[in-house]
Amino acid sequence: VRTVMLPLLLLLLAVPPAWPAPPTCYSRMLSLSREVTNDFQRLLAAELQEPCVRHLPRLYLDIHNYCVLAKLRDFVASPQCWKMAQADALKEKVRKLYTITNVYCRRDLVFLSDDCSALEYPIPVTTILPDRQR
């Protein structure tokens, strides 16, 4: 038993622990933009209970689209849904994403397109089928 345990113990000691890398500016923008898009979709589901939601600008974010800054700014400046905590929380996240993108991480971001209409509709999800199902 000792001869088996010793190599295993040495192996465990030789491998340094895997610490997750700290978030980068880019990874924070990317994760927050996904959160905002998901929260917006949940807010749309609540539109039947709160008519003010239909007056909010559409938010399907792509941080690589140059128009995202204007879209975030428009959303923050849009009319309030006064009695809806979910809308207020979303506006706060949008404000935070705008600040991170425009102030702190501006140099870390590369814009790949400037198609403003693309930010009006949900981003299509592509499904890749396994070889045998094609």
TrEMBL record:
The keyword Signal applies. The keyword Cytoplasm does not apply. Keywords: Signal. InterPro entries: CYTL1. It holds the Pfam family CYTL1. It comes from the Eukaryota. PANTHER family: CYTOKINE-LIKE PROTEIN 1. This is Cytokine like 1. The gene is CYTL1.
